Amino acid sequence: MTQPPAYATREDVMRAIDAQPSAKSARQIDRALQSSSRDIDSLCHRVFYPTVATRYFNWPDSQYRPSWRIWLDDSELISLTSITSGGVAINLADVLLEPNRSGPPYNRVEINLGSSAALGGGSTHQRDVGMTGLWAGCPLAETTVGTLTAAVASTTATTVTVTGAASAELGVGSVLRVDTERMLVTSRTMASTGQTLAADLAAQKNAVTITVSDASGFAVDETILVGAERMLITDIAGTSLIVERSDGGSVLAAHTTGATIYAPRTLTVTRGALGTTAATHSSGASVVRWDPPGLVRDLTIAEALNRMTNEQAGYVRTKRASGGLSSNDQGLVARDLPSLREQVYAAHGRKARHRGV
């Protein structure tokens, strides 16, 4: 079973601590991101990632409600594709998703009282109502980041190649959508950009201008590879890429005219993720990134960093003579984490629908 997506990417954490790429750090970061994301699910009593699924509800059950309403509780809806009761389809025109003024997500489904539709058509109350739709505990936020540079001709292919814009905007852990299919990015590898150096590049930190034939295929914040040296694009002017040399701890080196420029544009992905169906896609199809709520992403990164710091210190705390934590705790207690958790719960936590007075 594929793990649910994390609410931040591996690259988010590596940028935060200026970590050098390595298989060991990648595994540690991925593990910390998964743990942190699932902790946030528990904290907020909801999940934030979008899932296409059919879910079933008893009718009637122990919920306090009129006969024409179903509270969804932790199964919040973004959009509804179909609804049945007792196996009989109900016209979507006869269904109201609420609250209509602040949703999606919607926390209840109601039958339009002006229609003849009704719930409870089955022979038993168990799982009488089935709903198919897109489920998520937050509004659906997506950003178009680029396009496919090659067609995906097979439903079993596990790699896709994207433009420079998408390369800069996606990371390991990103949820992307191409047409109606969602994919989870599990790794990134270098691919030729089809361009070469148009002039020699000296082995000097202040030699930061790379001349190419066409700079439109690159993006600011994209990492490129020439020889064994990684460089970070910080700006683009005409046919010149302004770069930061020896990025990620790579070795500064001289490069000659004609050297091939590579970029991490080949993505290894899990196909047909989050309830969608793997499909073929044409070259030039838009690559759309799903964006978790900002506070949720911030807390995920903070929690992951805190876990990694604790792990590196062996979860050992030392105390001063006065009883307080010593200055060499290496960040074991992040002072702002409790505050950030409170902000996330206040903004996104699912509160109880019924409370005793």
In short:
The protein is built from five helices and 17 strands. By secondary structure, it is of the alpha+beta class. Strands 8, 9, 10, 11, 12, 13, 14, 15, 16 and 17 form a ten-stranded antiparallel sheet that branches. A four-stranded antiparallel sheet has the order 1-7-3-4, with no helix packed on it. A three-stranded antiparallel sheet has the order 2-6-5, with no helix packed on it.
Can you walk me through this structure?
- The protein has 357 residues and is α+β, with helices and mostly antiparallel strands.
- It has 3 domains: 51-135, no CATH class; 142-290, no CATH class; 294-348, no CATH class.
- 19% of the residues lie in helices and 29% in strands.
- A hairpin with a 2-residue loop joins β14 (229-237) and β15.
- α2 (23-44) crosses α4 (294-312) and α4 (294-312) runs antiparallel to α5.
- The two termini are 42 Å apart.
